[in-house]
């Protein structure tokens, strides 16, 4: 008991002296590649009449005017830039911009595969002109910009080591282009490896040039998009999941995201000095749709319904899309989806918050860099989306873990793999509960996770404690004390 009291005294002292840091690195610039999820204006510059995102009510929430963003306000890339803090990354095609602090190469409707692939295979979407803005084209734009950013190899290495690179999301437009051209779901699935290969090649190219910090996001759940639900809706109820999304189309996204996660793990092995992370759009969006009230979204109608559109079950109408004359938006855009394809600023804000919690330590603030290849992708796929806190820490363990995904248990096993093998079963059960509480109910905090690993591996005790996690730290130390007294 004396040992436990000593532990409690130590953590109380530390809580007064140490606080969790925000970003470990003060990034000098942010560079983004991708499609409409992160385009900040390139499409409206390149082809002003291609879509209607240059018209009101786009941009109404934050900018009070259309900016070329396919949303009512800011995107994930904007929130990340502001949190660093950096200026919003200007679109590369804009004239007279200062790109020294970053640039955005993303273009709405951009594909991972080159235009040549679509032309050679006669994949021509009905009613849409194909654009030459693929991922390789965006990399070419970056290469053209590089001489204005740095000159020598050493200078570029230093510049890139202090820059953050976001490679995506991209791939969504590949899938919708194929589907719009009449290709089957099976055909689309067969092209997922080619699309992920293109993303991996782009990542490799950037890493070869000295990029040190890269985030590779997955794609959104295709089957939950109002446009997909409207165009490919089924009379068979069994084709929909419990949320109301088309499962066959979500399977495409899941397959894509699994391949991207595997690619990120392999890239981390090949480039051990870099920090390469997978980031998730799929899971947070499905959670918003499943439990919209928890996240503050509108609940007076289906969460699958778009805010801005021309009517229909999902407020998406091919003949009256958002931005066209006479098409209006909901008065308070607290829906998940904005225009039937893209998402609202509120949704992007919550997603960005989860990504930032991962960026705060990038794991290697406290954990040796060699662990990154096996841990970073797991951490960033489990975004810190707030869930209701349990009323009692003594809640039955089985009910606590009931319904959790396999990745939750993978996280537990990963964390416990660094604990002493001699720890008793009862103490390990306590640690399971602590890890799950931290993982699911307390804005996932890498600083405390590192405290677990450092303490139980008998490494240097480096606790990062702030007032709001003091209680959790006490539980960890009690568990430690139990082990020491056995």
TrEMBL record:
Residues 1-20 form the signal peptide. Belongs to the 'GDSL' lipolytic enzyme family. The keyword Hydrolase applies. Coiled coil: none annotated. It comes from Rhynchospora pubera. Keywords: Glycoprotein, Hydrolase, Signal. This is GDSL esterase/lipase. InterPro entries: GDSL, SGNH_hydro_sf, SGNH_plant_lipase-like. One of its GO terms (molecular function) is hydrolase activity, acting on ester bonds. It comes from the Eukaryota.
């Amino acid at each position: 008991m004396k040992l436990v009291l000593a532990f409690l005294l130590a953590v109380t002292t530390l809580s007064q002296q140490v606080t969790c840091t925000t970003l470990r690195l003060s990034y000098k610039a942010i560079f983004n590649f991708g499609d409409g999820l992160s385009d900040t204006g390139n499409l409206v510059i390149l082809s002003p009449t291609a879509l209607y995102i240059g018209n009101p009510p786009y941009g109404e929430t934050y900018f009070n005017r259309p900016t070329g963003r396919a949303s009512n306000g800011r995107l994930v890339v904007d929130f990340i830039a502001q949190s660093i803090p950096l200026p919003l990354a200007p679109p590369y095609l804009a004239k007279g911009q200062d790109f020294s602090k970053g640039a955005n190469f993303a273009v709405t409707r951009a594909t991972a595969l080159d235009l040549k692939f679509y032309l050679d295979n006669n994949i021509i979407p009905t009613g849409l002109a194909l654009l030459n803005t693929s991922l390789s084209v965006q990399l070419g734009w970056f290469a053209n910009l590089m001489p204005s950013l740095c000159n020598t190899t050493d200078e570029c290495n230093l510049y890139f080591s202090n820059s953050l690179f976001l490679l995506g999301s991209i791939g969504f437009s590949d899938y919708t282009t194929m589907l719009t051209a009449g290709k089957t779901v099976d055909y689309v699935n067969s092209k997922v490896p080619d699309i992920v290969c293109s993303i991996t090649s782009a990542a490799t190219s950037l890493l070869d040039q000295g990029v040190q910090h890269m985030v590779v996001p997955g794609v959104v759940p295709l089957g939950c998009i109002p446009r997909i639900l409207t165009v490919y809706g089924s009379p068979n109820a069994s084709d929909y999941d419990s949320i109301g999304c088309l499962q066959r189309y979500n399977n495409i996204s899941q397959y894509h995201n699994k391949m991207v996660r595997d690619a990120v793990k392999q890239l981390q092995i090949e480039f051990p000095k870099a920090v390469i992370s997978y980031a998730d759009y799929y899971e947070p969006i499905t959670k918003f749709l499943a439990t919209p009230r928890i996240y503050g979204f509108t609940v007076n109608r289906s969460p699958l319904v778009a805010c801005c559109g021309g009517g229909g079950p999902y407020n998406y109408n091919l003949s009256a899309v958002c931005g066209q004359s006479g098409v209006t938006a909901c008065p308070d855009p607290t829906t998940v989806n904005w225009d039937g394809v893209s998402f609202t600023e509120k949704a992007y804000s919550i997603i960005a918050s989860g990504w930032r919690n991962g960026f705060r330590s990038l794991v290697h603030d406290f954990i040796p860099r060699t662990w990154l290849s096996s841990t970073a992708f797991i951490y960033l796929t489990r975004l810190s989306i707030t869930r209701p806190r349990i009323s009692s820490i003594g809640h039955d363990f089985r009910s606590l873990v009931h319904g959790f995904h396999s990745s939750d248990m993978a996280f537990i096993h990963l964390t416990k793999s660094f604990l002493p093998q001699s720890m008793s079963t009862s103490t390990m059960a306590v640690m399971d509960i602590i890890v799950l509480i931290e993982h699911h109910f307390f804005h996932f905090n890498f600083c405390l996770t590192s405290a677990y690993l450092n303490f139980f591996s008998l490494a240097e005790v480096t606790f990062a404690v702030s007032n709001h996690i003091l209680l959790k730290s006490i539980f960890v130390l009690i568990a430690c004390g139990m082990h020491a007294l056995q």
